[in-house]
TrEMBL record:
UniProt record similarity statement: Belongs to the importin beta family.
UniProt name for this protein: ARM repeat-containing protein
Organism, as annotated: Fragilariopsis cylindrus CCMP1102
Domain of life the protein comes from: Eukaryota
GO annotation terms (biological process): protein import into nucleus
Subcellular location: Nucleus
UniProt cross-references to PANTHER family, sorted A to Z: IMPORTIN-13, TRANSPORTIN 3 AND IMPORTIN 13
Length: 1033
């Protein structure tokens, strides 16, 4: 770069908050600059990444400010054609003027008055984005930063700040990814120039700008392998104490910048070498932090960064006075949060199970024990309590190996601290501890030998029982003002209660159901006794106990007779108007249906309770689910079939009284209870089938005759009900009948469905809702029983697909293939069906754009063909359709749609699987036909697979399950190693050299195991990604 002269200052830049930057396609930075008016200035520049969609560009443009009419005319003079960008000038002075004009346009406060102004603004933004990738940007940004002339004009001051920040931001990005644009010999001068700028702007207190400059210095330090950076910076503070602030700023950012994956390096070993040097320098850095006489917050920010990103030896931290200072800083509100972050990071990075950390662990525990936790509880300061709770919980999780060791006295103190944190009145704080209890139970269950594990459980049983009390009386309780809470607040409460339920269940896994239920049962009795005089207002304790009892239902035996009878005896006496309590009680009935089945005398008053709950919207779902669960436990003692069928008949007599999902829950229960009753009594089930189905048939008949019917409201619910009936109502065929009663139902409504589907328009998607019914009726009735309906079903599917082009019919057809594909007499009809559907599909899937508009059709088409090649391959393999499908699949592989992409890969892999099978069976005709297709289309398939691995096409499934990139390549390699090598030679021609050579080495191994091949594919993919990042710049 001839125009880059030695000594020019280059900008550096990234924020200490860079870990919060998440968007890979946009750089969003907000710099608040102090102006006479204290106006915040927002900067938003699009990242120079190719392939950004026009929609994303439009969204980003809408966030930019509008430029003035004067700037518009200047931009028009720069470039008259709005569709193309002007060339970047190699003349620095000329380019500076263009950049200033573009920045003025982007940050102008005037409002747009015409589309032309918006186009000009967009042009200015595009020009700035393009400039950030250019080589001349190095010098231009340097010159912009040099322009630091003083002015009294507030607008000019803001204009300068905008230009300086843009220059700093640009240079920080280029130091990460564009240093290859500079000769290596110029990097030291670039570093010196950055320090000049850093010193200049640090002296005036411009924090946002100095952050970017410090980030640039840090990125450049790694790029140029400046391994003595720490020593050199510390030495510079001896001769110039004013540089201490700059050095602290760099120390704050350097470790994170070294670890950042946004730092693009030609050799990743440079990163690891730099990290090793940071480790060796950590003692000096800690000393420097200790001697820092500036802001305490800055000291803890730097310390946090080094602990998080530099693997400092634990002995270095143990010996550092900063450790104790961090705990002392917790007593200062100004430094409490930062000091807590430091301490917590130490716990996370130095857990107790690593032997080398033992000295640090033994020092941390006494320091933690000095926390004034009792005083904080007395004062009730939520900020302090939250901080202490975080510290104590993180310590206990990190020191889990100590808790599960034989050092019980010391370890029990940790558990006791966490238990006290769980009792903090503010549930938002006390809930922080729940993950610790989960981890403790998980780890306890893994302890070996069993005798030692049981000894630990016995020792911690008192703590776990106290935790049960805390969950029931505190963590699980609804707030007293629950009726006044918003929907979002209630969502948070439901989430927290779910975690509390899991915690109670975890305790039950260790302590056993009887002990936990005994604890909760006594708490419930006490809560009911205390609230008995005013249940309407004091129900919260009863509800929380019931919810805890509900969560342990899997651990309670059916012969429990001490506490559950009391629990279910009080349910009918609970106030009917307290909906949260009624909802929990309804759920409790369902979860203990197995117990109630053994105690039927307690069930009778509970059924009206549930039936009434169906009419209360808040409780309806819980009541419906409980009714279904009771029906699943139906037996001769509690015959639920008839009473629930009557209840369901009453409910459906006026459609709409119950939400469909709750309606279906009750119907499923009816079907299961009736099925159990028919099985146990051996009665003819036809009568029950008619009673359940006849109302549905009547409603469908009325719908077909109604020209104004609405499928979503009138038809789909009925089809969903039929699906449930066919799936869960089991009625055996009677000896005197040759037809299954379910088949009789299907035949009786077949003409209604046929009439309906013949009338629907292509814009209605009712066919998809009919899918589960079609699939289930085949599977439940059995392929043999349903066989008489197969031909009319296939005909209906083809006709419906021709009219509607809806993917649902393809899926239904694939079910037919799965169920009947292996029966030879159906192979011809099945092929005719899928061939007709393929013809329809190809009529509107002609190119990539067509496939992109119909991803659901692509998905189901290829899954259907994949099932055909698996269950009934011969007709398809011997037909010209196979080659057309491979050609279409080669296009479908390019879709950026996970399901559609996976469907094409699934079809291809199934085809290759069949090819491998043919090699063993010696079926020469089919083998020759398949090989002919692969010879013609294999290169295109392999090209696309390789492009997916290289990042040029979507890679939706690399190596998991059937239909993966690695699976197809490995099986092609097994099918024909020579042909595969030929295809890969062509496909890898444009791949980066190093990953290409390594992958070819894998292909030369003809017997490579699948797992090793997957690793090779992943390695090739990772190598290409890294090379692509370098090439992008």
């Amino acid at each position: 770069m001839s125009h880059v002269s030695v000594g020019i200052p280059f900008l550096k830049g990234q924020d200490p908050a860079q870990k919060y930057h998440k968007a890979p396609f946009a750089i969003l930075v907000e710099a608040y600059t102090t102006t006479p008016g204290n106006y915040p200035v927002s900067f938003h520049f699009k990242s120079p990444v190719k392939g950004q969609t026009s929609e994303r560009r439009r969204q980003r443009v809408n966030q930019l400010r509008i430029f003035s009419s004067e700037t518009q005319s200047e931009l028009l003079r720069i470039h008259s054609a709005m569709s193309a960008l002007p060339e970047h000038s190699e003349n620095v002075e000329e380019e500076i003027q263009k950049i200033r004009l573009a920045l003025d346009a982007v940050f102008s406060s005037s409002q747009p008055t015409a589309n032309t102004q918006r186009e000009q603004r967009q042009l200015a933004d595009r020009y700035l984005t393009s400039f950030q990738e250019s080589t001349v940007a190095w010098m231009v940004c340097d010159r912009l930063l040099q322009d630091n002339s003083s002015t009294a004009n507030p607008q000019e001051v803001m204009r300068q700040q905008q230009q300086h920040f843009f220059a700093a931001q640009t240079l920080s990005t280029k130091c990460r990814v564009d240093t290859f644009q500079l000769p290596a010999s110029s990097l030291p001068s670039l570093r010196d120039s950055l320090f000049v700028h850093l010193s200049t702007y640090s002296s005036v207190g411009n924090a946002a700008l100095t952050n970017r400059l410090a980030m640039a210095v840090s990125a450049l330090a790694v790029q140029m392998s400046w391994t003595t950076v720490v020593t050199d910076l510390l030495s510079s503070t001896v001769s110039d104490p004013q540089r201490r602030t700059i050095v602290m700023q760099i120390f704050k950012i350097l470790p994170e910048e070294c670890a950042s994956d946004r730092l693009v390096l030609a050799d990743e070993n440079v990163r690891y070498h730099m990290r090793d040097n940071l480790v060796s320098s950590s003692t000096d850095v800690l000393r420097f932090i200790q001697s820092w006489d500036g802001s305490a917050e800055k000291a803890y920010e730097v310390l946090y960064t080094w602990i998080r990103y530099v693997p400092i030896q634990s002995t270095v931290l143990t010996e550092s006075p900063l450790l104790e200072a961090s705990f002392n800083a917790l007593l200062d509100q100004q430094t409490m949060e930062l000091a807590a972050d430091v301490i917590i990071e130490i716990y996370r990075m130095y857990p107790s199970h690593i032997p080398s950390n033992q000295g640090l662990v033994q020092k941390m525990i006494p320091l933690s024990s000095k926390l004034p936790f009792d005083q904080a509880l007395t004062l009730g300061d939520e900020d302090v309590l939250r901080t202490y709770c975080r510290i104590i919980t993180e310590m206990a999780e990190s020191y889990m190996s100590l808790i599960l060791s034989s050092q019980f006295l010391e370890a029990s103190k940790l558990v006791e601290w966490v238990l006290r944190c769980s009792s903090i009145p503010e549930t938002e704080i006390s809930s922080i501890t729940l993950h610790f209890w989960y981890s403790m139970v998980e780890e306890l269950e893994r302890v070996e030998p069993y005798e030692f594990r049981q000894d630990l459980i016995d020792r911690y049983t008192p703590y776990l029982l106290q935790l049960i009390d805390t969950c029931s009386t505190h963590l699980m309780k609804y707030p007293s003002n629950v009726s006044e809470m918003s929907e979002d607040e209630m969502d948070d409460i439901y989430r927290d209660r779910f975690y509390v339920s899991e915690t109670v269940e975890d305790c039950c896994r260790l302590l056993g159901g009887n002990d936990v239920l005994g604890r909760l049962g006594k708490l419930l009795q006490n809560a009911f006794q205390l609230a008995s005089n005013d249940l309407l207002n004091n129900w919260h304790g009863i509800e929380s106990c019931m919810m805890c009892i509900l969560s342990i239902n899997k651990f309670i035996p059916s012969d429990e007779a001490e506490f559950l009878p009391f629990c279910f005896d009080i349910i009918p006496r609970l106030p009917a108007d307290v909906q949260p309590l009624r909802c929990t009680a309804s759920k409790l009935i369902g979860k203990y249906a197995f117990w109630l089945a053994a105690h039927p005398h307690l069930l009778q008053p509970l059924l009206p309770f549930l039936a009434q709950g169906l009419s209360i919207p808040f409780c309806a779902s819980a009541a419906a689910l409980s009714i279904k669960e009771l029906c699943e436990c139906s037996n001769q003692k509690i015959a639920m079939g008839e009473p629930v069928l009557q209840l369901y008949t009453e409910i459906t007599s006026s459609p709409g009284r119950l939400d469909l999902k709750d309606d279906l829950e009750v119907l499923e229960g009816v079907c299961k209870a009736i099925s159990r009753q028919i099985k146990e009594t051996s009665v003819d089930g036809s009568n029950y089938v008619q009673r359940i189905v006849q109302p549905i048939g009547n409603r469908l008949a009325a719908t077909v005759d109604n020209p104004n019917c609405k499928p979503k409201q009138d038809v789909i619910p009925e089809l969903d009900r039929l699906t449930i009936i066919v799936q869960f109502l089991t009625v055996p065929t009677q000896p005197t009948s040759v037809t299954n009663p379910i088949m009789e139902v299907i035949q009786s409504i077949w003409h209604l469905l046929g009439c309906y589907f013949s009338e629907i328009s292509s814009g209605q998607s009712v066919g998809r809702k009919n899918l589960p019914f079609s699939q289930t009726r085949v599977k439940v009735c059995g392929a043999a029983a349903y066989e008489p309906m197969l031909e009319p079903l296939m005909k209906q599917l083809v006709q419906s697909y021709e009219r509607s082009r809806q993917s649902a019919y393809l899926y239904a057809a694939s079910i037919c293939v799965t169920e009947y594909g292996r029966i030879p007499k159906h192979s011809s009809n099945l092929f005719n069906m899928i061939n007709a559907m393929a013809t329809v599909s190809f009529s509107f899937l002609n190119n990539l754009d067509d496939l992109t508009r119909h991803p659901d059709v692509v998905e189901e088409l290829f899954y259907m063909m994949g099932r055909m090649i698996t269950h009934c391959p011969e007709p398809l393999v011997m037909s010209p359709l196979l080659q057309a499908l491979f050609q279409c699949a080669a296009v479908g592989m390019q879709l950026d749609h996970r399901a559609a992409n996976k469907g094409t890969l699934n079809f291809i892999e199934n085809s290759i699987n069949y090819g491998l099978t043919l090699k063993e069976r010696n079926q020469h005709d089919c083998q020759q036909a398949l090989e002919s297709v692969l010879v013609n289309e294999g290169q295109a398939i392999v090209n696309n697979l390789t492009l997916s691995l290289m990042g040029d096409l979507p890679a939706c499934n690399v190596d998991s399950g059937n239909g993966s990139i690695a699976g197809i390549l490995w099986k092609l390699h097994s099918l024909s190693p020579a042909m595969m090598t030929q295809w890969m030679t062509v496909a890898l021609a444009t791949a980066p050299e190093r990953p290409r050579i390594d992958f070819f080495g894998c292909l030369n191994n003809s017997g490579i195991p699948r797992n090793d091949f997957n690793l090779a594919v992943r390695a090739f993919m990772g190598g290409c990604k890294r090379e692509r990042r370098l090439a992008r710049r």
